[in-house]
Amino acid sequence: MNTQLTLALRYLRGHKTRTILTTLSIVLGVMLLFGMNGMLPAIKESFSQGVKTSISLDELTVTRLANGIFGQEQVALVRNVPGVVAATGSLSRKVILPTDMAPQDQRGQLITNLTLTGLDLDSFGEINPLSLLAGRSLQPGDRAVALINQSLAENSGLGIGDHLTLPTADGVTRLEIVGIVAGFGALSGGEPLYLPLDLAQQVLNLPAQINVIEAMVAPSEDMAIVGQRVLESLGSGYQLGAVETGSEIQAVLELGDFIFSMFGIVALVMSGFIIFITFRTVVMERRRDVGMLRALGASRRTVTGIFLFESLLQGVIGTFLGLIAGYLFISWMLAVLEPMWRERLGLSLGGAQFSLGIFILSITLGVGISVLAGLYPAVVAGRMTPMDALRPAISVERKGSTRRRAIWGIVMIAASILCLLSRNVGLASLGVILFIAGLMVLLPLLVRPVTRLIGGLLTLAFAREGNIAQGNLVRQPERAAITASVIAISLAVVLGVTGLLTTLTYGVFSYMDKSLGADFLFIPSSFALGSGNVAAGPGLISAIRQVPGVEAATTLRSSFARFGETDVMVIGVDPQTYPQVSGLEFSRGDEQLAYQAMAQGNVVLANGMLATQGKLELGDDIELLTPAGMRTYTLQGIGNDYMNSKIMTLYVSQDLLAKDFFETGDVLLMLNLADNADPVTVRADLDRLEAEYPGFTLYAAQEWKDRMVQDARTRMSITYLLVAVLALPSLIGLANTLGINVLERTREIGILRAVGATRRQVQRIIMAESLLLAAIGIAFGILAGLWLGYVMTASMALVGYDLAYFFPWSGILLAVAVGLLIAVLAALHPARQASKLQIITALQYE
Amino acid sequence: MSIVMIDKLTKIYGHGETAITALREISLHIEPGELVAVMGPSGCGKSTLLHLIGGLDRPTSGRVLLDGQDLAALDDNHLTEIRRRKVGFVFQFFNLIPVLTALENAALPLMLDGIKPAEAKQRAQEWLERVGLVDRLEHRPDQLSGGQQQRVAMARALSTEPALILADEPTGNLDSRAGDEIANLLRQISDQWEQTILMVTHDPRIAAYADRIVFLKDGTIVDEAHLSGDVSRSTAGVMERMEGL
Ligand SMILES: Nc1ncnc2c1ncn2[C@@H]1O[C@H](COP(=O)(O)OP(=O)(O)O)[C@@H](O)[C@H]1O
Ligand SMILES: [Mg+2]
Asked: How far is Cα A89 from Cα A99, in angstroms, rounded to an integer?
């Protein structure tokens, strides 16, 4: 044990560069896996800023499931519950201020993010008296007044007597600030703004609605029992405690979580390969030492143990450094993202957070993969007899194993093709793995012919050195194959993701063309419906309808419902006007019949994502928990619109939304022009309306699409980050292999130099080898990547996006460019190393 | 009882047409405290013989008894244990582990046997001093001369106080002065601690240090000579005897 550890440490220290390179590959994988997962909670938290309620010992907080609102008359029911001494209702929602209304902070940044809390002036003081720092509190009879908190006052410079303007359902309202209360806004939430309940209801267009009841329990009573009584008095659909928000955004984030984790794991698996190649070589290099140890009486287990200790040490150190690097990387990323986030989404970002689970996962995978990759080489080392080591037998190519390898490889590739042809996504994904595995089995056999094929081209550029380089690769087919595979896998992932993104982008554009049939749009401040938008009352739509030249106009309204375990978005459409202006892209069900049915009764349409994840069929009864309680609706159609394709969404008629969700505000308005209308004059009229409703921005459909295309382009740029991140392990792997090749052939290089090869020629040999390896990697990477992209696109269909596959030409160019760049970069150091060798030392080596 | 008894030992490498018979029914006894030299031209099977006696390889037929133990009956683990406890090896090349110091190399068999590092190093250091290496304990092999490296290898072989030391051309890679020093050391070890030693050499000058010389040719023993009995203890004497073969 002790001896093994000593030896392992010594060997690692004896080959510093190699140790650093292999460890670095683990660092990178862990960094990705750990860091990315640490970033997500910050993003999630940033989204889940809803109602903030104070919870103290003698207070009960009652909210509605699914973040619902309810009638303010419910407060009276709670007040009558035995044990409750006082109760008050409030309405609290996040709003995003239009930029021309938002106050500025000292750095000149807009504070767009507020949490409006409407307080019942008659009763809030008994339960939740705000601790006042200056001015006065809200009093019964107050109208257009508000309280702000200390941090908003400090940041914005607003004080008592100043005014704030808020958008409302029918225009704007001006509030006077009368007092400043203690406290700071939640780290990631909006700054609170307290105002009279009726005013808040007017701003949010939720007349007589609240979403929180706070009740004070008599000190002698048992909180739990009173809480139970409260719930019973209210009927179903209520809960004790604060609102859980944004589980639909959560679902999207979890997908992101999953994707990031996958990248981390892919990077780790690649570092596994790198360790594997390195250790295979190390075992061969150390054959004589192993023989000596065995002759001296070291058992097989001891020898295996030395190698395992080495991989374990590297795994532990690499993982440890990876955790630190991941933390630093993500903290830096968050710091860089924060201003962008604030500007684009009006949300602030918290710091990096790491759950115990992600620690465990990172450590297990980081250390586990290192040890696993070292296992086979270590066992091989242990199996060596002293004689193998002291008297190396000339390696004879074993025909049997070659044939078996070929058969296995071909069987795997054939099976993977069958999987692809099956048109079943599960099988097709399995096919990708099979294909890559089959490739890795076959590659050692393919190295020779492929090298010869590509080598022909190479000799054009490297007339004299190309042949030697080819020979060198063919001599170590296994190592060449694994290195090429590492390159191939990373390029495949890059290409696959580019393929998916290309498809998604084009796919979304085509949705957009169909589902955004409108000529003009009034878009709310925040892009995602239902997250803090101030809705418009009936005034805006009727004003739009009266503009001369407008042929048809329609609105969207939004709410949430609980479907099983998750929140789903519910969009209210007008079954008459919606199809005229925009409409869904139907994938199942008859369009006309569906809208007719919607107008008549308890009918819903689902988007693709919800239909797939909920395994819904036409005609199914869907049970939803709505703000009005449990309701059952019939599914009459499945279709997508562009804006809500990424979250689970149901469509209902606006009448139903008013009846069961109490929502009547318009959050998005769309209109079409008559054929003979003059767009310029209509636009002028609409501009005037836009000025009256600052919560909305007017876009011509084309402008909006352009903006979305721009956004999609930005998203595509994530690919480049990804390319960099995934290219790095390949770079390390290739540099490692080349470095080992140089080490191994020190003597040969000495002889080459002795017989008259120039330093440049030696460098060119290494460079040629690198390019050859990369070329093999690129060729197979493109094959696997196209496949991967196809499968990913196909699996998107499984979760509800039915998209046509677009061939990623740009991705292929990118893959080739990156592959060649890697080749050149990786060869730089080993080539210099080789050419610097002194002839004498080189010849004495070993 | 003899330390080594071999009986009709045969070793054939390979199969069929390419098979090479390295040893052909060899029988040999080595008594406790003896220093025996095996001589013969290159390729006559000297190393093969040493490997079989040391349990590094298995014979095609015949038996090896080492300190009364039949090696054929042992599995790999027990064979390993025999090597660790009863045999000390000194080879021509690749003798030391490059990443360990002289002291650690010498202590290695003891450490492998589970003896505490401090004690193992203590014992190794004593042996290093006995073989004349006092001031280079913390040097790595690449910082030592060939002769010094071979002394470390001897100390390592002696550290477990084995029943038998096997030395395969221990002077083969050294200049003549260093070679003489090592041969002298072997003689001294044999005399002072009655250590049984079997060494292989093709150098008559080195063989002259032995008590007995076994002449090997084409895998069979062709002659045997007791020095200072049959043959005078000198290079010339050994050369003379070889000439007769
Ligand atoms: N692993 C092996 N495979 C095949 N032939 C071998 C092997 N080891 C040794 N030989 C052959 O056996 C014969 C004896 O070798 P060896 O014992 O090394 O001779 P010596 O040490 O006397 O020079 C030689 O002909 C050698 O080529
Ligand atoms: Mg030999």
From this structure: 30
Q: Are A560 and A574 spatial neighbours (Cβ–Cβ below 8 Å)?
A: no
Residue holding tokens 């876009």? A699
Give this prediction's pTM. 0.61
Write the pLDDT tens digit of every residue in A368-407. 988 988 898 899 888 888 877 666 544 444 455 778 888 8
- For A450-500, what is each residue's pLDDT tens digit? 777 776 776 666 666 666 777 766 666 777 777 787 778 777 877 777 777
Q: Is the pLDDT of residue A324 over 90?
A: yes
Q: Which two tokens stand for residue B83?
A: 């090597």
**Helices within A462-566 (DSSP H only):** 466-475, 477-515, 538-546
Q: Which domains does chain B have, with CATH numbers?
A: 4-243 (3.40.50.300)
Contact between B210 and B36 under an 8 Å Cβ cutoff? The reply is yes
Q: Is residue A695 within 8 Å of A534, Cβ to Cβ?
A: yes
CA dihedral A302, A306, A311, A313 (to 10 degrees): 110
Q: Which site among A390, A396, A841 would you substitute to test the B interface, given the most B Cβ atoms closer than 10 Å to its Cβ?
A: A390
- Identity at A32, one-letter amino acid code: L
First and final CA of chain B: distance in angstroms?
31
Q: Going edge to edge, which strands form the sheet with B212-217?
A: B87-90, B164-168, B197-201, B35-39, B212-217, B220-226
From atom 25 of ligand 1, which residue's Cα is the shortest distance away? B43
Euclidean distance between CA atoms A10 and A762, whole angstroms: 31
Q: How far is CA A277 from CA A77, A280, A464, A564, in A?
A: 72, 5, 29, 49
- Measured distance CA(A484)–CA(A402) in Å, rounded: 19
Report the distance separating Cα B226 and Cα B210, nearest Å. Answer: 9
The partner residue sitting opposite A299, judged by closest CB among B77, B95, B100, is B77
Cβ separation A295–B100 shorter than 8 A: no
Is the ipTM beyond the 0.90 threshold?
no
Residue A643's pLDDT is what? 66
- How far is Cα A65 from Cα A790, in angstroms, rounded to an integer? 40
Judged by CB atoms within 8 Å, which residues 59-78 of B form the interface with A? 76-77
Angle at the Cα of A174 from the Cα atoms of A170 and A180, rounded to 5 degrees: 135
Coil, strand or helix at A85? strand
- How many Cβ atoms are within 10 Å of A298's Cβ, its own excluded? 27
Q: Name the residue ranges covered by the structural domains of chain A.
A: 1-48+255-394, 51-245, 446-517+701-846, 526-694
Q: Give the ligand whose atoms come closest to the C-alpha of residue A385.
A: 1
* 8-state DSSP, A384: -
Instruction: Assess contact for A490 and A281: CB atoms under 8 A.
Output: no
Cα(B44) to centroid of ligand 2, in Å? 8
CB contact under 8 A, A385 and B54: no
User: Which residue among A10, A13, A387 places its CB closest to the CB of B56?
Assistant: A387
Residue A305, min C-alpha distance to chain B (Å): 12
Burial of A618 (0-12, 13-18, 19+ CB in 10 A): middle
User: What is the secondary structure of chain B as a DSSP string?
Assistant: --SEEEEEEEEEESSGGG-EEEEEEEEEEE-TT-EEEEE--TTSSHHHHHHHHTTSS--SEEEEEETTEEGGG--HHHHHHHHHHHEEEE-SSS-S-TTS-HHHHHHHHHHHTT--HHHHHHHHHHHHHHTT--S-TT--GGGS-HHHHHHHHHHHHHHT--SEEEEESTTTTS-HHHHHHHHHHHHHHHHHH---EEEEES-HHHHTTSSEEEEEETTEEEEEEEBTTTB-SSHHHHHHHHHT-
Ligand nearest to the CA of B26: 1
Give the span between the Cα atoms of A272 and A28, in whole angstroms.
12
Top-confidence range, A323-337, A439-453, A715-729: A323-337
Q: What angle do CA B231, B236, B239 make, to 5 degrees?
A: 80
